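Hi there,

I know you've been waiting on this one. I reran it after we fixed the sequence typo, so this is the corrected version. Both the input and the resulting structure follow.
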Amino acid sequence: MHFLFLLLLMLWAAPARADCTGPAGVESQTAYDFTEHRLELCTGSNWLEIAPALPAGANGQVQFRNGTAFGADTGLFWNNTDKRLGIGTATPFSTLQLPDVYYGGTLSPFAPGPLPGFSIVNDTDFVGLVLTDRDGVANGDDKDGTLYWGDATSDNLRFTFMLWNGTTLIPTERMRITGAGNIGIGTIAPVATLDINGWLRRKKNASAPAACNATYDGSIALTSARRLCICDGAAWTEINAATTCSW
């Protein structure tokens, strides 16, 4: 009986299987591709990579573990072409773009050149800090810090003091620079290159602060005797007097 059973198994024709080529294989056979580093299955006509179904999300969205599966969100985006990461945006315009948690703007590295910097952007308005070369050539230890803002001549750079009153922050503007280059101290509408709404103190000089010449023409200084003097391009003279200043 056992002999008959074995004979029947030997004579039983196995179902035919289709073949795959490149490399050769038969249907349901698996093989590992050492070039592409992946496991493949022969489907009977070609080799198909064995891989789990693609996780949720669209191209560019960063994957993260969400419970027992992988998830994606439009707020995490990777631009693989330009190598940019966006948080809170699917169109990052710089290497890293982050949402401003207070005003809805963005904080991102931004440099109008090869040197590092960053900007805070909201709509088309921005303020930023960047390193710039003194000679315009990106080499050597000659970098200056540059503070910039924009994007229109009506935009101002404000210096505001924030006072905490125990409940909230109270902003008080102390100084501003306009797009026209005017500086206002104690005023929000400077009408001159330097507009001071308040009083100022000058240092008394026991000697001339500099040799009066064309370079210092128009400079003003105070003598130790509290005489106000002006450099006329050749000599220091007392204001409203034709006498030479005595320090």
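Quick highlight: The helical segments are 2-11.

Best,
R. S.
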